[in-house]
From TrEMBL:
Residues 190-464 form the Glutamate/phenylalanine/leucine/valine/L-tryptophan dehydrogenase C-terminal domain. The active site is at K114 (proton donor). GO terms for biological process: glutamate biosynthetic process. It comes from Trichoglossum hirsutum. The record marks D154 as: Important for catalysis. CDD domains: NAD_bind_2_Glu_DH. This is Glutamate dehydrogenase. It catalyses: L-glutamate + NADP(+) + H2O = 2-oxoglutarate + NH4(+) + NADPH + H(+). Pfam families: ELFV_dehydrog (PF00208), ELFV_dehydrog_N (PF02812). NAD(+) binds at T197, N242. NCBIfam families: PRK09414.1. PROSITE patterns: GLFV_DEHYDROGENASE. One of its GO terms (molecular function) is glutamate dehydrogenase (NADP+) activity. Keywords: NAD, NADP, Nucleotide-binding, Oxidoreductase.
Length: 467
């Protein structure tokens, strides 16, 4: 009997990786990698600490803070900080574990980690959030650094919180260094960082000479033999935070129609013939900064005529779409919802969130891929599809190291190359290690898992972490 606590989210992430490795010929070709798997699945270090802060009434408050420094074989730990009441070690270990292989797929020299606190920013004043950030960094600053561990933002941690955290770090350490990413562009941040995860998921700046596109557009072009793109596609998106907003804006720019957004309270569904506009995305972005919900605007003039608001719902069973982009949180597409997406003839699903699909949903998509061949739904995991955010974070680290700021065009070109490599690395690795039936699309989840795992395992071997 194991003496470890129950960690369902981490166990799910681990099982998903292991199942794809075991169902490939990787261990037949390289049996020694089984040893590497047992090592890489245990974090190098877990830091847990209390965060004591004062609310506006002068009352003492206590939260739990965490940093999971999972793997540094490829570089310093890199991964976001999440402030949300659901935060616990299981969630942070799953996120950190996924981050290892996501970061490996970018080709950048960054390891994997994740952190945060069970602090709920909703309902708190700006001063309360600032005081919490200062107290949180008072302990975290002892364990991070520009060459050790570089956190970023995640749920509940926007550019504002990054600023307060950075100021607290600087006050504690007397160091101005690139210890956090997602900083303001006037003091060390990278251009297009806020947009990067959503843009990297979907966008295309197609160059006839370089043939560079972004992740989902790569999928569409590959599956259609170059005959289709986002233009004319109906796209269902979940979430309404940073990733969902920028994914929606890029889909609109590319000629697609966004037919849904959602939050923890419900889903906003476009009525027949309607689609979410860029101006409406801006309105939604504004209410999210104020920590309000879609329900607060769903009945207002301009929205109630065009959209149906369904309380407590996710969009997948309520819309017909060509492309589905889960961009909210983990496990937001269930097995039953996956079956509905298949029945509705959705062609592409790519995770903007981390582990957005349950294992049951992935099994549905993969079974359909094998059965329906070229007519199947094609699934892309978050560790590949949503790597744009951490990719630009890595580019921000490079700019900080050089004390330079690159132009939008320079960052954009590097991001295009990274996302193109993410897609082709997973595609080519799947072809090499997973048996492919005639007419089948390669398994992007298997290819991405194997490619990321192999790179990390090889580096760990060279450094003596396993032998």
């Amino acid at each position: 009997m194991s003496n470890l606590p129950t960690e369902p989210e981490f166990q799910q992430a681990y099982n998903e990786l292991v199942s794809t490795l075991e169902n490939s010929n990787l261990f037949q070709k390289n049996p020694e990698y089984k040893t590497a798997l047992s090592v890489v699945s245990i974090p190098e270090r877990i830091i847990q600490f209390r965060v004591v802060w004062e609310n506006d009434k002068g009352e003492l408050q206590v939260n739990r803070g965490f940093r999971v420094q999972f793997n540094s074989a490829l570089g310093p730990y890199k991964g976001g900080l999440r402030f949300h009441p659901t935060v616990n070690l299981s969630i942070l270990k799953f996120l950190g574990f996924e981050q290892i292989f996501k970061n490996a797929l970018t080709g950048l020299n960054i390891g994997g980690g994740k952190g945060g606190a069970d602090f709920d920013p909703k309902g708190k004043s700006d001063n309360e959030i600032r005081r919490f950030c200062v107290s949180f960094m008072r302990e975290l600053s002892k364990h991070i650094g520009a060459d050790t561990d570089i956190p970023a933002g995640d749920i509940g941690v926007s550019g504002r919180e990054i600023g307060w955290l950075f100021g607290a770090y600087k006050a504690q350490t007397k160091l101005w260094e690139g210890v956090l990413t997602g900083k303001g562009t006037s003091w060390g941040g990278s251009l297009i960082r806020p947009e990067a995860t959503g843009y990297g998921l979907v966008y295309v700046s197609f160059d006839l000479h370089t043939q560079k596109t972004q992740y989902v557009d790569h999928m569409i072009r590959y599956a259609s033999g170059g005959q289709e793109s986002f233009k004319g596609k109906r796209v269902s998106i979940s979430g309404s935070g940073n990733v969902a907003q920028y994914a929606a804006l890029k889909v609109i720019e590319l000629g697609g129609t966004v037919v849904s957004l959602s939050d923890s309270k419900g889903a906003l569904i476009a009525k027949e013939g309607q689609g979410i506009t860029a101006d409406e995305v801006a309105i939604i972005a504004d209410i999210k900064v104020k920590r309000q919900y879609l329900a607060d605007i769903a009945s207002t003039q301009g929205f109630c005529e065009k959209y149906e608001y369904i309380a407590g719902a996710r969009p997948w069973t309520h819309v017909d779409a060509n492309v589905a982009l889960p961009c909210a949180t983990q496990n937001e597409v269930s097995g039953d919802e996956a079956k509905v997406l298949v029945e509705k003839c959705t062609k592409f699903i790519a995770e903007g969130s981390n582990m957005g699909c349950t294992q049951e949903a992935i099994d549905v998509f993969e079974a359909n891929r094998r059965e329906k061949k070229g007519d199947a739904i094609w699934y892309a995991p978050g560790k590949a599809a949503n790597a744009g955010g951490v990719a630009v974070s890595g580019l921000e680290m490079a700019q900080n190291s050089q004390r330079l700021s690159w132009t939008t065009e320079e960052v954009d070109e590097k991001l295009k190359s990274i996302m193109s490599n993410c897609f082709h690395n997973g595609l080519d690795t799947a072809k090499e290690y997973v048996e492919l039936g005639e007419g089948e699309l390669p398994s992007l989840v298997a290819g991405s898992n194997i490619a990321g795992f192999k790179k990390v395992a090889a580096a760990m071997h060279d450094q003596g972490d396993w032998w």
